[in-house]
Amino acid sequence: MILIGIHMKYGLPFYIYPLLFIVYSLIVFYGCYYIGSNFFIKVLCSGDTDQKEIAISFDDGPASGYTTEILQVLKQDNIKATFFCIGNRIAGNENIINKIKEDGHIIGNHSYSHHFWFDIFSSKKMLDDLKKMDIETERVTGLVPKLFRPPYGVTNPNLKKAIIKGNYIPVGWSVRSMDTVIRNEKKLLNKIERSLKPGAVFLFHDTSKTTVSILPEFIREVKNKGYHIIPLDKLLHLIPYA
User: Distance between CA atoms of 203 and 118, rounded to whole angstroms?
Assistant: First the structure.
């Protein structure tokens, strides 16, 4: 209606409208697919600190083999991380998710299905999916996750409704390692080491062999540069469970 009024008053050429639509579409696309945009809902992606402190997180597990190896590395260096787990991967891996809990790491909600079309679900279907993950986690660990990381990092109005109704805290990242894409270990290490800064939240995947391989070297480099890896809830000042 506003555009019609402007057109009637100022007589804008009609080609302006397709251009405006394209610009609008690009803005919405940016808001949906860049998790740090806060376009639809505020997502916590980094800590507000000037201290040399960072947090590391892992998505898409629990995964037989890789998650266990990562837990061993973290235990050797006395580091606490956050694992944003997929609910349908818990059954059959109960021992792994219990080990995550026992070792003092945080378990976060990364949806139950991690469905390819998750971002076009209705808000009710999204919420049902998240609640299903909560139920599965509570069944095994007794914990109900409060921290939620959107599948694929995509946000939209439906997900906003689901997050608010479910009383979740949306958490993103400031450094996406791309460890599921970059197979060259040296290249991956160089990329993430260049991104090291106070308050950074690193995203890895405990489904990646490359991550298992580079994690010890990354931790050593972080420590050599005077940084401390602290729990995500401490960095972001959050309560991780309901």
Answer: 20
